[in-house]
Amino acid sequence: MRLRAVLFDMDGTLLDSAPDFIAITQAMRSERGLPRLPDKTIRDQVSGGARAMVACAFDAAPDSADFEALRLEFLERYQAHCAVFTQPFDGIEQLLTDIEQAGLLWGVATNKPLRYAEPIMQQLGLAERSAVLVCPDHVERSKPAPDMLLLACEQMGVQPEQVLFIGDDARDIDSGRAAGCRTAAVSYGYIHPEDNPRNWGADVVVDQPHELRAVIDRALCSC
Q: 56, 183, 185, 218 — which has fewest CB within 10 A?
C-alpha cells in the first residue's frame, strides 16, 4: 500500500532533548558539590529514562535509600524545564516540511508521558502541525507493544501498513513491526554504546535525518 503517514518517536528521533536532561543533571550534581560529568556520560543514558540517568549521575542503585528522592527531584525539574534547550535534530524541520508538502500526515508516538510531551510540542510549534500525539497516558501498554501505533493509525484514519514509524530504540522497531507498520531505525539518536540499530530488524537504518527523505520517497513509490 502507498504511504499515507509518518510517525516519529520523540526523544532521540524527532527531537534532541538530551541538552535539557544534561543541564538538569549537571545542576543537581553542582548543588551537591559534585564535579561536572562529561555530557556524553549522561547522553548515553537518555534512552533508559530518568532512572538510568539518576543511577549513572549519582552512582545510586534503584533500591538505595536516596534514589527515589533523586528521581522525583529530577522529574520535577524536568517538568519545569522540559523545553529550554530541546530542539528538532538538524534536518528534521525540512523533513517535516517535505512530508507536509507531499500531502502526508505525520505524528508522534512516544513513551514520554503526556505532561512532558505536550508542552514540548506546543513550545516548539509542532503541536498544531502534528496530526496525532500518542503517549503512555492514552494506552494500556507502552512500546514495545503495538498499542500506541494502532491508536495513532486509528486517529489518523489510516491502515498500519500505510505508515512508516521511525525510532531510535529497539522498542520502537518492535512496536512498529508488531503493529504492521514499516519501520526505520535512526542511528543518530540516543543509542547505548553497547547497542546496534542494525540488529533491531528495522526495514531500513539511517545515520542522518536528511536520509529519511529518500526512505519516504521510496515508500511513496511502492504499492
A: 218
**Which residue in the list 11, 16, 20, 147 is annotated as catalytic?**
11
Reported pTM = 0.93
Phi, psi of 126 (to 5 degrees): -100, -20
Residue 166 is given by DSSP the state E
**Chain segment 58-75, per-residue pLDDT in tens:** 999 999 999 999 999 999
Separation of alpha carbons 129 and 61, rounded Å: 41
Q: Residue 199 is placed in which grid cell?
A: 540488529
Query: Does the domain at residues 5-16+86-221 carry the CATH identifier 3.40.50.1000?
Result: yes
If one counts every other C-beta atom within 10 angstroms of the C-beta of residue 223, the result is 4
User: pLDDT tens for residues 103-153?
Assistant: 999 999 999 999 999 999 999 999 999 999 999 999 999 999 999 999 999
Which residues, in sequence order, are bridge partners of residue 15? 11, 88
Cell readout for 103 is: 500531502
- Yes or no: say if 121 and 58 are a contact pair by the CB < 8 Å rule: no
The reply to whether 39 belongs to the active site is no
Residue 201, helix vs strand vs coil: coil
200 CB burial (10 A radius; 0-12, 13-18, 19+): buried
Q: What are 201's three cell numbers?
A: 530488524
- Closest to 116 in 3D by CA, of 75, 165, 168: 75
C-alpha cell at 46: 537518555
